[in-house]
């Protein structure tokens, strides 16, 4: 049975790429809601309604588990979605936090995402829960997803926008930057140019695929049953 994946646009394809690398034999169904992108400026009720529609579609296509490859939907809606999904749902927040913990260290942690993701406080709360002593700096960066959707993945304009958003965090000397939107890994080159090599970049797409590895293994082991009489 296929693995379902959805996002508000093309950004979720970064998750698909990571999943295909981790599970090359797994069928994957991806829905990119380009008709209603972005989700980051919409209410929790609207994001939940859109997500339910897509989950219903993926289930009809046979998906036996679904990755909510949208940080905004993960932050605003995944709890309610799990109540009615009837298949396992995997959000982006938990795996992103696990990836930050794996980096280690004690310096400030930066989080960038859509306005809705940052305003929800989901990443800040999850990080503070496991490491209350950490200083968490969260910055909404709404223009970045639009730049990716328009294929502005490099160049002077994109670099200026990224630098403008990250300057407050750079002054605080962050040691980790969480890319809390699946569009943002496509801008890694620009982030690296602006931040240098000392700041670790946590890619939510790669973190999601890694967090699913143990789950997928368990599913495959349980899926095969042999009875000898």
UniProtKB/TrEMBL annotation:
Q: Example GO molecular function term?
A: glutamate racemase activity
GO biological processes: cell wall organization; peptidoglycan biosynthetic process; regulation of cell shape
Which Pfam family, giving just one, matches this sequence? Asp_Glu_race
Show the InterPro entries listed in the entry: Asp/Glu/hydantoin_racemase, Asp/Glu_race, Asp/Glu_racemase_AS_1, Asp/Glu_racemase_AS_2, Glu_race
Catalyses which reaction(s): L-glutamate = D-glutamate
Task: Quote the EC number.
Answer: 5.1.1.3
Give the matching HAMAP family.
Answer: Glu_racemase (MF_00258)
Q: What is this protein called?
A: Glutamate racemase
Biological source species? Verrucomicrobia subdivision 6 bacterium BACL9 MAG-120924-bin69
């Amino acid at each position: 049975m296929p693995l379902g994946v959805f996002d508000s646009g093309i950004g979720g394809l970064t998750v698909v790429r990571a999943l295909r690398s981790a599970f090359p034999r797994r069928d994957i169904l991806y829905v990119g809601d380009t008709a209603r992108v972005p989700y980051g400026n919409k209410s929790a009720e609207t994001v939940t309604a859109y997500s339910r529609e897509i989950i219903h579609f993926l289930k009809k296509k046979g998906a036996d588990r679904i990755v909510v490859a949208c940080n905004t939907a993960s932050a605003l809606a995944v709890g309610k979605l799990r109540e009615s999904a009837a298949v396992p749902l995997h959000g982006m927040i938990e795996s992103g936090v696990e990836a930050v913990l794996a980096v280690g260290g004690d310096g400030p942690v930066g989080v960038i995402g859509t306005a809705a993701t940052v305003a929800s406080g989901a990443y800040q709360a999850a990080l503070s829960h496991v490491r209350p002593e950490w200083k968490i700096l969260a910055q909404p960066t709404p223009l970045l997803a639009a730049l990716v959707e328009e294929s502005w993945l490099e160049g002077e304009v994109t670099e200026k926008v990224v630098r403008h958003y990250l300057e407050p965090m750079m002054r605080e000397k962050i040691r980790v930057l969480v890319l809390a939107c699946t569009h943002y890994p496509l801008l890694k080159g620009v982030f690296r140019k602006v931040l240098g090599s000392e700041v670790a970049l946590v890619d939510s797409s790669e973190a999601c695929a890694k967090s699913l590895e143990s789950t997928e293994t368990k599913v495959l082991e349980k899926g095969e049953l042999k009875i000898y009489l």
